[in-house]
Amino acid sequence: MRNFISVHDVNDINALVQKALSYKANPFQDRNLGADKRIGLLFLNPSLRTRLSTQVAARNLGMEAIVFNVDKEGWALEFEEGAIMSGNTVEHVKDAAPILGSYFDILCIRTFPSLKNRDDDYSELYIKQFIQYCGVPVISLESATLHPLQSLTDIITITENRKAIQHKPKVVLTWAPHVKPLPQCVANSFSQWINAWGETDFVITHPEDYELSEAFTKGATITHSQDEALKNADFVYVKNWSTFKDYGKIYENDPAWMLTDEKLKQTNNAKVMHCLPVRRNVELSDEILDGSNSAVTQQASNRVWAAQAVISEILRSL
Ligand code: CP
């Protein structure tokens, strides 16, 4: 594996999941694999889980992990080719990325979308520019359209919980209300990975006008009826996203879309997933988050093993 940007960088999803689960069982089995190697974690946006789990994972492999909060501590970066930099940006990615590549063996980058211009965001300009100019492998810590470490974690968590299920599991991705327009990254990425995995009956449910890009959802059943989607579900993944077509908007925030214990009765005692952070009693109810069906803590703790499996694959390719 050279870079980890999307599911297309993975040859065998199940093999990567098993590697992650092997690290979960024995975290220090490759404690010297990354000896004398350094990983840089660049954050252009906030994070709790991604930042800490990737640091822990790198440390388990013997690497030194250095975090740089570019948004707060770095120079404002320019990404436009041929830009006349007379505005607020101070340093072009063409100049910064090769320097960062000389300091680190692997670079990890979090760069959220602007939600202002769909074509710009969906071109993945920022992460592609880092890949082009840094000269070392790049791991996405969430880009403008995808969150691959989260999606790998999600499949690890489904794999762990599907052991008790005899049939092909039904996985439902449901839109939930939120107070702010959020990126489509987690929903896009989950759809892309679940479709590529191909081991589930995958249903996406959302209000009208909240369609995601077909580039990620093709293969899933899509319905505007949450009740219909929830019937006999084994896993319910809850996530808000803003509109894709009329880009980055909130059209409706109907609280009836928030998952409750009453709605969960329609499912096959489903495990409820969410990438976190979550706005309680807006996106997901207290009763679900504090109840026995919630898998969110297991899911977030699995972020370490997903990151460790990916870093280990890249280290072996250096
Ligand atoms: N799920 C996730 O990426 O969490 P953070 O934004 O806290 O890293």
From TrEMBL:
Question: What range(s) does the Aspartate/ornithine carbamoyltransferase carbamoyl-P binding domain occupy?
Answer: 2-160
Q: Tell me where in this chain the Aspartate/ornithine carbamoyltransferase Asp/Orn-binding domain is found.
A: 202-312
Annotated GO biological process: citrulline biosynthetic process; L-arginine biosynthetic process via ornithine
The cross-references to Pfam families, in alphabetical order and at most eight, read: OTCace, OTCace_N
**Which top EC class is named for this enzyme in its record?**
transferase
The pathway noted for it is:
Amino-acid biosynthesis; L-arginine biosynthesis
Where does the chain bind carbamoyl phosphate?
S47, L48, R49, T50, W75, R110, H147, P148, L149, Q150, C275, L276, R303
Q: Which UniProt keywords apply?
A: Amino-acid biosynthesis, Arginine biosynthesis, Transferase
Q: What is its EC number?
A: 2.1.3.11
Please list the residues that bind N(2)-succinyl-L-ornithine: E142, H178, K239, R279
Note the superkingdom of the native organism.
Bacteria
Fetch the InterPro entries from UniProt: ArgF'-like, Asp/Orn_carbamoyltranf_P-bd, Asp/Orn_carbamoylTrfase, Asp/Orn_carbamoylTrfase_sf, Asp_carbamoyltransf_Asp/Orn-bd
Reaction catalysed by this chain? N(2)-succinyl-L-ornithine + carbamoyl phosphate = N(2)-succinyl-L-citrulline + phosphate + H(+)
What the protein does comes down to: Catalyzes the transfer of the carbamoyl group from carbamoyl phosphate to the delta-amino group of N(2)-succinyl-L-ornithine to produce N(2)-succinyl-L-citrulline. Is essential for arginine biosynthesis.
**Family note:** Belongs to the aspartate/ornithine carbamoyltransferase superfamily. SOTCase family.
This protein's assembly is summarised as: Homotrimer.
What is the protein name for this chain?
A: N-succinylornithine carbamoyltransferase
